Amino acid sequence: MRRSLVLLTAAVLTAAGCAGGAGVPDSARTPTPWSAAPSSASPEATPSPSPTPTPTPGPTPSPSPSATLPGGGTTILPDHRLVGFAGGRSPAFGRLEPEALDAATAQIAALAAEYAVDGRTVLPVFELITVVAHGSPAADGLYRTHEPDDVIAAYLAAARRHGALLLLNIQPGRADFLPEVTRLERWLLEPDVGLALDPEWAVGPGEVPGDVYGSTTGAELDSVAAYLSALVQEHDLPEKVMVFHQVHASVVENEAALLPHPGVLPIKSVDGIGDQGSKEQTWTTLMATKPPHVAPGFKLFFDEDTEMGPLMTPAQVLALVPTPDYVLYE
User: Fold this and answer.
1) Angle (nearest 5°) at CA 142 between 136 and 146
2) 17: how many CB neighbours lie within 10 A of its CB?
3) Cβ–Cβ < 8 Å for 116, 316
4) φ and ψ at 164, to 5 degrees?
5) Burial (CB count within 10 angstroms: exposed 0-12, middle 13-18, buried 19+), residue 14
């Protein structure tokens, strides 16, 4: 699963300094056993792309119990830690399969106690792969397709049954992030829905997702954060989470251009597959460029990480510096 890009050899890993990217030519920016594994399902794991239709009115979300975050309140930090699973309709996306949402929530709950040892309350998260990049063009040539509104509605209903936050994950292919975000506005107006951006799947003209690393810029992330902030202020919404997953230093350029925005909690989630030592090394590398107002996040892989060594325990994750505010399992 999730290994559509060519793996680099251990020698290249050593020469490159893991995720730092030093000395790695552009042509070698392909996933390694740790630092460059795709953060979600590979293009081969997704269904064959179908044309992305012009958006039409879809299901209206069921009314939220209140205009607050799950469990109450309007802000996440410092009282909460986010812990959740990634997934979607393909089993390759993670454990949040449509028929297993209740079971996945039970697993998240089992982990929660181990992530609440510092006195924080764990807020469970469903991260749904909502815009899916793939290796062949859709009708508009943008190498991505959209999950139907009824799928998002079903995941939101399940999240609400279990007091969870729903994050809509976007793999934009050749599209830009902001248009993909704004087309989800009907969902982002809900108080318990946020975003997760996957820039390794954001490629340029002539590039194919899964063949090369995609990338974004701090300025592009800032445009999304500004849009979310406007929604929060105009509609009196609780704080919006905006995760951006980063697997390699090259995936986000000039992070300093991502500025603070009222009502938005940006989270930099360090992504990738590997053993504990490799993951810790990449954590240190990528945290060094994190803007102070951006919260730290960390991602683990139940299957792929354990092929490299034991899965990191919650205690080991919480020992990272800085301590993660978001922990995502796939």
Assistant:
1) 90
2) 16
3) no
4) -110, 160
5) exposed
Between CA 75 and CA 236 the distance in angstroms is 13
Q: For residues 88 and 147, is the Cβ–Cβ distance under 8 A?
A: yes
Torsion 227-205-146-209 (CA) sign: negative
Q: What are 24's two structure tokens? A: 């790695």
142-160 confidence digits (pLDDT tens) = 999 999 999 999 999 999 9
Are the C-beta atoms of 190 and 156 separated by less than 8 Å?
yes
Q: Give SS3 for 266.
A: strand
In one letter, which amino acid is 46? Answer: T
3-state DSSP assignment of residue 307: helix
Is there a contact between 87 and 104 (Cβ–Cβ < 8 Å)? yes
Token pair in block for residue 68: 């607050």
Amino acid at 1: M
For the chain, the distance separating the N- and C-terminal CA atoms, rounded to the nearest angstrom, is 11
Whether 144 and 175 have beta carbons less than 8 Å apart is answered as yes
Q: Which fold is adopted by the domain 10-47+67-329?
A: TIM Barrel (3.20.20)
* Residue at token pair 């090369």: 212
Sequence-ordered list of residues with C-beta below 8 angstroms from that of 47, at least 6 positions apart, any chain:
90
Main-chain dihedrals φ then ψ at residue 223, nearest 5 degrees: -65, -35
| Angle formed at CA 248 by CA 166 and CA 262, multiple of 5 degrees | 45
pTM of structure: 0.83
* Residue 112: its H or E element: helix 101-115
How far apart are alpha carbons 258 and 294 in whole angstroms?
9
pLDDT in tens, 71-87: 999 999 999 999 999 99
The Cα 138–Cα 144 span in angstroms is 6
The owner of tokens 């807020």 is 123
